[in-house]
């Protein structure tokens, strides 16, 4: 019995291994989010690198994701060599990539973890089905295979593989025992890439998606070792161990004569610092390896550097532990200190995608993750890091904590760092060098080494150095040019440099950074922890304040900014009945009242003391503004006393002395600085508001200081505080900002439009003149389309406020929000109310924002009088689909006439789907319906009933909607009986139904759609029988322009049936037959009918087992395709002879713009010089050609030069795709601008 069970299991495992794995890989290749046009795609390595943070989360179980990826699987996806091999991935790994990267369904879709029911037969369900069986049979090996269970398992598995595109003869072969000698061999060559284990074999580096050789059934399978990616850069440093002084291979003791003994001062100094043993050991030891070839002076110099390094490290560690381990957030309360270890902030790592400017935000678990190696950097650690964040979010505190953690050796990723320097950029004086700044801010008096010693140490040991630069937004680069050189990597290029800045200055340093980190502030849990720490032993107060703060926490408002949370706590202590303001101006006004009250009490004046602080605050505010404009960070205490005549003004509570945390020797003495930049900005804003309100003469002068968008961005908070302080100031400033915007160059407007609009709306929100100041819609949104993408939740609040007080409501025609990072119910409700007042708004889009609380807006749809186009895609509606259904019915009763409804990818429940599809039938004015990527199943029968009321429908998108047998029959019948004469586009992509009779009904029904222009049946697996039925329907579709039959298992019989029907479609422009089995004969049948399809502009015959004869047939009949602009013939087993013959006989094609003849998939076409000569000559017959793809074609050096000479003299050709490894080594054209290397 055990032998029988083993034999049956082996058959199923073989089917999984040799066919199931192949189909899963094919599905992964087709669905990876990598396509950017008809002929281009990313490699698997590129896609994985772009989404590496997601894979890190799956490995570590961080950021709310389960730990589902093992270390071995992770190493397969990110090998040391940097070249991921698709052929080495098993079903389990590929399933994870499909689930978390391919976006075929929501990641939260319940179906990923549930075995599909027999009625669910979409490609995604079949992937889940194959994976579940693989887990049971191979990974867990828990399923007992008996003769009875074998049949059911075989039928279930083989049917899924066939639906996914497998060939029946291949599948059936494994049902019987196959001898080991007949198993397909996966030919692999040893992996010679650096870092590969000895004896390791490289799996195919390209997608293993083989096709049967022409004339065969495809039982044999060949795998190629074609490289799929080029080197991603070299490692700048590879040492991961401890520094020399802490090495596990210590240096041997040197002779006493080899180095000079330390001086008396040095000995005294070393005896009083931590780690003295390290310093002395370093001084008294040398490396035995290679010491015979060094002179005693060289040995002494090296030991001197080690001594400098050890001594400096000791000083810094003592400094950070003593002075930075506790922070004093309130300058007026010296007894309130917070341990730095109790500070928590969230971090987002920003990495650019292939789109260039769009960024993916992925949360980091800790500061340590910033310093981990990145694959996009060639597996090295980041060297130039930018940390950005809004005012008060905790940038300085984060750097401080990092320095303290380094001093206490808590950061594993910084174990190799021997020196960490924290430099406050605002304290760097005029013409200082970096070494000057280090000595000025960090080195104590009596440090026994010179600046020259430290400078030489940093040069020699720079790969052990971390430099933390705090406050680039407060720094004038002209004061210290070396900082710019440091950030660009021209100075200490191997050192790690991290710089903090506000967003206003990030554009200046981001281009030279290899990693950008954004601090987003406190999470809700962080807020609670902070309050518990602040109000220790006062649980009642914590709960009361949390209730006050809940709206601000839910909407990511001011309570999530650490600085503001601290201020709110102080205000609550002082005034428990305080009503928390909604604006930051209101918060700081309350803060200043509290500060003044404490000051008066402290100096015996009483809360309502007679001392007039008005004149004092006017002077302080003016000083704040002047320092802000001139980038001065400090000022003399004596000067301030002279101006205010207030002897204790330094104790007001808004100042601190410069030497509190950094004992600057250059800027010593009694110099004051503002305790926090936001306090300075508030006071500066008050002064600006006062000038703009009271002095017309000074107004023009002050506005001149805000003459550019960049300057306005840098002074953003002073502007906001001024707007919140005075109605007159708000009016003047907003009008001034609009003038700046109007006079800005077009390119600047394009880059800064969203930032400028947000700043303008914030000014309006802060203003006390909310109802009396207008931001002209057409100035902010020239076309009347209000659009925000990739924004934080507060934008929804500002937008709602703006639209609520807008008088030019007739100017807004569209509102679009995409990738919004959450919002509160209150803000969503406010936005919905505002949208109701937009009388001519005809389009509303809210997309790709699953954390957006959309329900309040849905409930108000009926009150939006002109709404015609509604897009709610990627919102994870779930059960809220029922709310939408109710809203649509109300729109019907209110006699609204919506034209477009798109609700794709919303994880709709069955109950919600039923309600929604029923409601759709009420909206008889609909012309566009998209319910794709929702598992609708049998509920599509309801839609079939609704179609009888939708006589104006022009577009129906049911892509991957889980079409079942019942729904298939109902839909086909509806096509025949419902009044759908206006339907122009029908998308049924990815719906697979095994029952052929049901499919026949559906395909026959398509023939009744007499006005159909665009038909998409991609991946429906209709097969040859379905093709015969479809050909009958095509004869009735005289207006058809686009037909997509990719991945439908079409063979020669299907070709003969389909192509003879094409002359009934005289307007046909696009035909996509990618990934079928037409073979040369099938393509020949099509080519013979080119005369009947002379209107074609795009033709895709890739991956169709087309040999030389098929390619020659295309060339021979191509003269009929004089309108063809795009021709794709890649991934076919063409030989050198066929390739040359194709171009030799290719006629003049005046309209052709793009041609793909990239050669056999998984292999390489070695083109001879004669063959290339035909290619070069053919270019002259393609006068409009702009893009030519030759990715898997290799030429000799002479042949390549011949081709490139013709390409560069072509005139129109701008892009030639070619593989880097196929480039001849010494070609003069290897750096041609035409080449796009893969």
UniProtKB/TrEMBL annotation:
<protein>
    <submittedName>
        <fullName>NLR family CARD domain-containing protein 3-like</fullName>
    </submittedName>
</protein>
<keyword id="KW-0067">ATP-binding</keyword>
<feature type="domain" description="NACHT">
    <location>
        <begin position="383"/>
        <end position="504"/>
    </location>
</feature>
<dbReference type="Pfam" id="PF05729">
    <property type="entry name" value="NACHT"/>
</dbReference>
<keyword id="KW-0547">Nucleotide-binding</keyword>
<dbReference type="InterPro" id="IPR041249">
    <property type="entry name" value="HEPN_DZIP3"/>
</dbReference>
<dbReference type="InterPro" id="IPR032675">
    <property type="entry name" value="LRR_dom_sf"/>
</dbReference>
<feature type="region of interest" description="Disordered">
    <location>
        <begin position="234"/>
        <end position="259"/>
    </location>
</feature>
<dbReference type="Pfam" id="PF18738">
    <property type="entry name" value="HEPN_DZIP3"/>
</dbReference>
<feature type="region of interest" description="Disordered">
    <location>
        <begin position="182"/>
        <end position="207"/>
    </location>
</feature>
<dbReference type="InterPro" id="IPR007111">
    <property type="entry name" value="NACHT_NTPase"/>
</dbReference>
<dbReference type="GO" id="GO:0005524">
    <property type="term" value="F:ATP binding"/>
</dbReference>
<dbReference type="InterPro" id="IPR001611">
    <property type="entry name" value="Leu-rich_rpt"/>
</dbReference>
<dbReference type="InterPro" id="IPR027417">
    <property type="entry name" value="P-loop_NTPase"/>
</dbReference>
<dbReference type="Pfam" id="PF13516">
    <property type="entry name" value="LRR_6"/>
</dbReference>
């Amino acid at each position: 019995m055990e032998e029988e069970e083993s034999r049956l299991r082996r058959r199923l495992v073989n089917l999984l291994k040799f066919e199931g794995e192949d189909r899963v890989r094919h599905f992964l290749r087709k669905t990876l989010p990598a396509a950017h046009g008809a002929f281009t795609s990313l490699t698997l390595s590129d896609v994985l690198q772009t989404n590496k943070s997601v894979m890190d989360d799956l490995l570590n179980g961080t950021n709310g994701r389960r730990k589902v990826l093992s270390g071995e699987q992770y190493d397969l996806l990110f090998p040391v060599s940097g070249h991921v091999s698709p052929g080495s991935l098993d079903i389990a790994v590929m399933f994870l990539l499909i689930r978390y990267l391919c976006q075929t369904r929501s990641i939260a879709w319940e179906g990923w973890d549930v075995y599909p029911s027999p009625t669910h037969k979409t490609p995604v369900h079949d992937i889940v089905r194959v994976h579940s069986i693989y887990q049971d049979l191979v990974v867990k090996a828990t399923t007992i295979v008996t003769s009875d269970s074998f049949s059911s398992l075989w039928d279930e598995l083989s049917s899924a593989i066939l639906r996914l595109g497998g060939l029946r003869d291949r599948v059936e072969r494994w049902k019987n025992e196959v001898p080991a000698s007949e198993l397909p061999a996966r030919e692999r060559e040893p992996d010679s890439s650096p870092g590969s284990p000895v004896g390791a074999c490289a799996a195919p580096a390209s997608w293993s998606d083989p096709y049967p050789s022409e004339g065969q059934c495809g039982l044999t399978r060949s795998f190629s070792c074609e490289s799929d990616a080029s080197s991603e850069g070299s490692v700048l440093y590879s040492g991961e161990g401890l520094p020399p002084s802490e090495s596990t291979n210590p240096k041997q003791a040197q002779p006493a004569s080899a180095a000079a003994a330390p001086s008396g001062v040095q000995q005294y100094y070393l005896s009083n610092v931590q780690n003295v043993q390290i310093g002395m050991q370093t001084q008294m030891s040398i490396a035995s390896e290679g010491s015979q070839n060094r002179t005693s002076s060289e040995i002494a110099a090296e030991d001197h550097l080690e001594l400098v390094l050890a001594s400096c490290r000791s000083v810094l560690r003592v400094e950070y532990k003593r002075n930075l381990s506790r922070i004093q957030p309130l300058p007026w309360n010296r007894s309130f200190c917070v341990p730095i270890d109790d500070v928590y902030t969230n971090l987002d790592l920003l990495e650019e995608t292939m789109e260039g400017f769009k960024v993916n935000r992925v949360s980091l678990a800790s500061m340590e993750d910033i310093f981990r190696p990145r694959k996009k950097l060639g597996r090295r650690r980041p060297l130039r890091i930018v940390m950005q964040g809004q005012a008060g979010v905790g940038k300085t505190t984060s750097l401080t904590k990092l320095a303290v953690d380094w001093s206490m050796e808590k950061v594993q990723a910084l174990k190799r760092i021997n020196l960490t320097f924290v430099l406050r950029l605002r304290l760097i004086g005029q013409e200082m060098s970096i070494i000057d700044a280090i000595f000025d801010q960090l080195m104590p008096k009596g440090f026994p080494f010179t600046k020259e010693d430290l400078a030489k140490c940093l040069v020699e040991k720079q790969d052990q150095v971390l430099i933390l630069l705090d406050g680039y937004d407060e720094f004038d680069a002209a004061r210290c040019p070396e900082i710019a050189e440091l950030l660009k990597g021209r100075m200490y290029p191997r050192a790690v440099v991290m710089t903090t800045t506000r967003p206003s200055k990030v554009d200046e340093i981001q281009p030279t950074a290899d990693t950008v980190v954004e601090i987003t502030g406190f999470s809700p849990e962080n807020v609670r922890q902070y309050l518990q720490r602040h109000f220790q032993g006062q649980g009642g107060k914590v709960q009361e304040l949390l209730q006050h703060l809940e709206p601000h926490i839910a909407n990511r408002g001011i309570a999530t900014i650490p600085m503001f949370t601290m201020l709110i706590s102080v205000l609550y202590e002082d005034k428990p009945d305080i009503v928390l303001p909604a604006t930051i101006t209101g918060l700081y006004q309350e803060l200043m009242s509290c500060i003044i009250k404490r000051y008066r009490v402290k100096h015996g004046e009483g809360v309502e003391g007679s001392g007039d602080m008005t004149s004092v605050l006017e002077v302080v505010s003016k000083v704040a503004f002047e320092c802000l404009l001139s980038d001065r960070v400090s000022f003399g205490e004596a000067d301030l006393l002279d101006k205010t005549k207030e002897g204790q003004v330094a104790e007001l509570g808004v100042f601190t002395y410069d030497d509190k945390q950094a004992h600057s020797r250059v800027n010593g003495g009694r110099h004051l600085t503002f305790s926090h930049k936001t306090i300075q900005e508030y006071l500066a804003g008050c002064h600006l508001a006062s000038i703009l309100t009271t002095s017309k003469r000074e107004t023009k002068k002050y506005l001149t200081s805000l003459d550019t968008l960049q300057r306005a961005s840098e002074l953003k908070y002073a502007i906001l505080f001024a707007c919140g302080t005075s109605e007159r100031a708000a009016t003047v400033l907003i009008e001034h900002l609009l003038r700046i915007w109007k006079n800005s160059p077009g390119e600047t407007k394009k880059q800064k439009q969203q930032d400028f609009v947000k700043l303008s709306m914030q000014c309006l929100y802060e203003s006390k003149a909310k109802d009396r100041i207008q931001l002209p819609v057409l100035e902010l949104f020239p076309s009347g389309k209000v659009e925000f993408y990739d924004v934080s939740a507060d934008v929804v609040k500002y937008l709602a406020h703006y639209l609520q007080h807008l008088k030019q409501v007739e100017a807004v025609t569209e509102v679009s929000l995409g990738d919004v990072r959450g919002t509160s119910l209150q803000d969503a409700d406010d936005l919905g109310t505002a949208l109701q007042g937009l009388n001519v708004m005809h389009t509303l889009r809210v997309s790709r924002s699953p954390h957006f609380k959309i329900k309040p807006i849905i409930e108000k749809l009926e009150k939006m009088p002109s709404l015609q186009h509604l897009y709610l895609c990627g919102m994870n509606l779930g059960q809220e689909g029922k709310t939408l259904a109710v809203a649509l019915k109300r729109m019907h009763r209110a006699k609204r006439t919506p034209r477009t409804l798109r609700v794709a990818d919303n994880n709709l429940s069955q109950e919600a789907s039923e309600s929604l599809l029923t409601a759709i039938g009420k909206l008889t004015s609909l012309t566009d319906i998209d319910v794709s990527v929702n598992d609708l199943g049998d509920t599509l029968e309801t839609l079939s009933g609704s179609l009888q009321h939708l006589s104006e429908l022009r577009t129906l998108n049911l892509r991957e909607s889980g079409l079942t047998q019942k729904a298939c029959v109902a839909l086909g019948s509806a096509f025949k009986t419902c009044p759908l004469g206006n339907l122009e586009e029908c998308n049924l992509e990815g719906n697979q139904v095994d029952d052929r009779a049901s499919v026949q009904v559906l395909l026959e029904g398509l023939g009744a759609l007499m006005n159909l222009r665009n038909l998409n049946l991609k991946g429906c697996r209709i097969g040859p029988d379905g093709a015969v039925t479809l050909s009958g329907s095509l004869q009735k579709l005289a207006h058809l322009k686009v037909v997509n039959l990719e991945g439908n298992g079409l063979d020669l019989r299907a070709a003969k049936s389909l192509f003879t029907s094409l002359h009934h479609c005289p307007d046909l422009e696009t035909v996509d037959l990618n990934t079928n089995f037409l073979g040369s004969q099938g393509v020949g049948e099509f080519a013979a009918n080119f005369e009947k399809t002379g209107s074609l502009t795009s033709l895709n015959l890739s991956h169709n087992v087309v040999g030389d004869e098929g390619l020659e047939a295309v060339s021979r009949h191509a003269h009929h395709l004089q309108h063809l602009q795009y021709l794709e013939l890649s991934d076919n087993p063409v030989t050198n002879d066929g390739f040359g013959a194709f171009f030799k006989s290719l006629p003049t094609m005046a309209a052709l713009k793009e041609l793909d003849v990239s050669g056999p998939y998984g292999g390489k076409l070695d083109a001879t010089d004669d063959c290339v000569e035909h290619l070069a000559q053919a270019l002259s017959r393609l006068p409009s050609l702009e893009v030519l793809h030759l990715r898997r074609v290799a030429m000799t050096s002479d042949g390549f030069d011949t081709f490139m000479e013709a390409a560069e003299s072509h005139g129109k050709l701008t892009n030639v795709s070619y593989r880097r490894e196929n480039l001849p080594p010494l070609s003069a054209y290897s750096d041609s601008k035409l080449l796009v290397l893969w």
